[in-house]
Design brief:
The protein has about 600 residues and is mainly α. It has two domains: about 475 residues, Up-down Bundle (Sodium/glucose cotransporter); about 80 residues, no CATH class. About 65% of the residues lie in helices and about 0% in strands. Helix 19 packs antiparallel against helix 20. It is globular and about 75 Å long.
Length: about 600
Amino acid sequence: MSVQTWTWILVGLTFALYFGIAIWARAGSTKDFYVAGGGVSPLANGMATAADWMSAASFISMAGLISFMGYDGSVFLMGWTGGYVLLALLLAPYLRKFGKFTVPDFIGDRYYSNTARTVAVICALIVSFTYVAGQMRGVGIVFSQFLQVDINLGVIIGMTVVLVFAFLGGMKGITYTQVAQYCVLIFAFMVPAFFISMQMTGNPIPQIGMGGKLEGGAYLLDKLDTLHTELGFNEYTSGTKSTWDVFAITLALMVGTAGLPHVIVRFFTVPKVKDARKSAGLALLFIAILYTTAPAIAVFARTNLIETVSEQQYSEIPEWFKNWENTGLIAWSDKNNDGKIQYVAGSAIDGKKPLYTSERGAHGERLISNANAEVNELYVDRDIMVLANPEIAKLPNWVIALVAAGGLAAALSTAAGLLLVISTSISHDLIKKQLKPNISEKGELMAARIAILVAIIIAGLFGIYPPGFVAAVVALAFGLAAASFFPAIILGIFDKRMNKQGAIAGMIVGITLMLFYMIRYKTGLIGVMDPRPASEWWFGTSPEGFGTVAMIVNVIVSVVVSRMTAAPPADVQEIVENIRIPSGAGEASSH
């Protein structure tokens, strides 16, 4: 069967499974909708948390990032996995014991202030919409390539699927759907890795195969280093970033992970505090399966890509290359008119992405209108590496289709979690807690469903009409979470002297500073049209790492302001003392 037929079959089966779970897990109360009734087992919650966390960025983009960055890409592995250790040790059990539905709910009650709650809601919406926009576009790209439909239609299909299991089941439907999605995405990620590792090194375990020997006796990584240096790139196994920037990015990703609202809310779905710890530990284990495999896939894909396309005649190039040209994720411009693909260090184009024309070149290639004068003729988007990897390695069609189903599972699971955060922030933290305190449970549930419908429409519009900067800032959602939520949460747990004035001032300063830096040095919307160059970075800190600086500023502002103003009420200080006592806790409460 063809790849497209296999894809329709596998995607159809997985979607039918998601719909079935959504109908079975229909939410009947706000507690079901917000925290899945608080009765999810640690094993199921660990798998759901892993699926919630491993977005399209983890499934599609991370191995691609590592394949192009080499050693420097290790910051993503250290930051994103280290964040879960931080979450398990410092946040999950205490937040679960506090017993609130949402992060803004915790901040509003801990800081005895609706103003603090509102600031937290705004921060949650900024972080969540920044993150979810990329998920919806990722869904569109996968549908476009593998099912041969328009990208915008792919986004609409993805919106519909998420709407069904989020609208019907809320957190209950999303949790059990995410268990299924974890199984799909991890199977889809690992099967090609096993195949290619065996194919290249004779060892089926990709983590070992990455450091293994090839048929000729040379080590795979040594060969990749040689290929890189021959093409003018830095050695794959050597880094170029400064020690400070590596530290800043890693820490920003760690504390950003620990501050992401859609991840934190997962620990309110288990019955007990000890279950929250177990969930975090199991989630880390489930995440590690994919994260320890990603560097191996990066090495396999990078080696195969270079050997397949470099110095090859376009007329002899495999069919997968020409198929992927239509998505805009790979492009060739024959600058010296020799019919060969020259792949060397340097940019093949003037802009971030190639702009296609409707014309075909002398060799049948899709012409691009923004090729620059550098020698390199090949543009490769990092997102192609995982999706096209099975095709490059000539794996069976069902494996190629399986990767498409896995990519959709990863994007949809995270999109659902983020959209629920947006929904609960509006229905629970704004309407129930502030605007209409006497609203009935039925009315609040209806408000939550309306909010999730509106959020899905907005997210879909971001996917169909993506602002030029969305793709660039999705990863920076972690910096935004680090700059805003993390200090307020950690100080709220461990500093009983922290008051509402300090928390509010810290959150506002932190997220404002991060937004300013992100826009000025990543998207170029403040003062100039182009992003400012790396030579102007503050303290040599990249936008991806600036969340660390903004977080430190947030902590300083919070502590200083809290010490200059009145101490929190005695009952609040007592709550802070109590949530650190390692004992059982009651059910999550909306009151």
